[in-house]
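Please fill in the sequence for the structure shown.

STRUCTURE ENCODING:
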């Protein structure tokens, strides 16, 4: 099966070269990561220092890097005398990992392309004792090489959305062989475990450990700190309400602006903060907000303006600043497309800590209902926080699985 995969991969690359080369040359992020991921650029010296075989943690991009925070911290405390190295596949994931983990891991680098020579070069240099893959980024050559080297690979915080499950199920005769390369699969929920078993993964390979996102470090913020943050974002009195729209996608901002336009008529003391999932879209989102008649600004531009200027909408154009709203006892609203987070979203809705909306009208009605009833807002936030607290412990369970593979 691995031979067939490499034949298809080679044909695909050969045919696609005329398209691949321009894509690399025209994309700054791909140019900067290409040579190291290819395995022809020297790795950082602190990876090559073979005092011992390190623990290798891999996360695809920003979301997975952020999910891994509590596990990295726990591994650092638990394995004090063992090196920990961390990889990411995307440039933004790599940058966030550097920001979060520079003092907690021994080296941060780019994950190799799934080409035989790239995988062999990088894994040969690192020679890990174990590889931990966070949520996704599953590559056949990499898994096959680890199996050949008798290096256990653990997939943690694993989930199979309905869409992913249908895709894997259609080609289960291929994918179940690749999943069998894992030593262990730690799933977020019982439903995820069932789906993996349906794909032919033995139950003894699967552990239901929960979602490590619930174990994110939570530091209560004082009123003084909140006030300083508000002032840094030019949010002054009489502003009393702040709407935070996190991780938005193209098309969602127009719905959001539509609802916010109506909200401002009823609640003039409200400010909207929008955080696009891709910060490169921030300027187009800013343009949309301005065209709707709102005084709007990018977060990075605050240092260039008069300190007394006020704004209706703030568009955040940096990454890695969002935390789980449930951890801060805030009411949560989300849209219809939550298949990637079906388990969490359902728990929050069932608890009364979140509301799922369908369109701009239901978004407006839900926000208006929360803003006009402080008791309702407080109750929703408390219920969301209870869900957050009740589901802690996934990191401890995951750690036990990792430990069992190291012995």
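FILLED IN BY: designer on duty
SEQUENCE:
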């Amino acid at each position: 099966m691995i031979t067939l995969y490499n034949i298809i991969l080679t044909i695909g690359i050969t045919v696609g070269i005329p398209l691949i080369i321009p894509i690399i040359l025209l994309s700054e992020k791909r140019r900067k990561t290409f040579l190291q991921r290819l395995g022809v650029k020297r790795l950082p010296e602190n990876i090559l220092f073979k005092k011992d075989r390190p623990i290798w943690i891999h996360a695809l991009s920003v979301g997975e890097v952020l999910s891994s925070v509590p596990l990295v911290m726990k591994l650092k405390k638990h394995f004090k005398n063992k090196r920990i190295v961390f990889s990411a596949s995307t440039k933004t994931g790599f940058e966030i990992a550097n920001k979060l983990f520079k003092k907690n891991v021994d080296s941060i680098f780019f994950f190799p392309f799934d080409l035989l020579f790239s995988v062999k070069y990088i894994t040969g240099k690192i020679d890990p004792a174990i590889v931990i893959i966070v949520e996704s980024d599953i590559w056949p050559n990499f898994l096959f090489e680890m199996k050949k080297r008798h290096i256990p690979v653990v997939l943690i915080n694993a989930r199979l959305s309905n869409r992913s499950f249908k895709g894997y199920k259609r080609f289960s005769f291929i994918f179940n062989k690749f999943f069998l390369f894992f030593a262990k699969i730690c799933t977020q929920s019982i439903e995820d475990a069932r789906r993996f078993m349906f794909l032919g993964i033995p139950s003894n390979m699967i552990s239901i450990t929960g979602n490590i996102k619930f174990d994110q470090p939570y530091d209560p913020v004082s009123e003084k700190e909140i006030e300083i943050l508000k002032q840094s974002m030019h949010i002054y009195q009489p502003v009393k309400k702040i709407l935070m729209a996190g991780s938005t996608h193209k098309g969602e901002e127009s719905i959001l602006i539509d609802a916010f336009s109506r909200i401002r008529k009823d609640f003039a003391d409200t400010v909207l903060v929008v955080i696009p999932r891709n910060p490169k879209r921030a300027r187009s989102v800013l343009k949309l907000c301005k065209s709707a008649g709102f005084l709007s600004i990018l977060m990075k531009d605050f240092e260039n303006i008069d300190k007394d200027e006020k704004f209706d909408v703030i568009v955040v154009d940096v990454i890695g600043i969002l935390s789980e709203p449930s951890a801060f006892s805030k009411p949560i609203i989300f849209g219809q497309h939550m298949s990637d987070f079906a388990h969490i979203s359902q728990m929050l809705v069932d608890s009364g800590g979140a509301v799922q909306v369908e369109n701009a009208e239901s978004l407006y009605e839900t926000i208006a209902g929360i803003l006009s009833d402080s008791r309702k807002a407080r109750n929703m936030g408390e219920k969301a926080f209870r869900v957050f607290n009740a589901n802690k412990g996934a990191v401890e369970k995951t750690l036990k699985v990792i430990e069992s593979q190291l012995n």
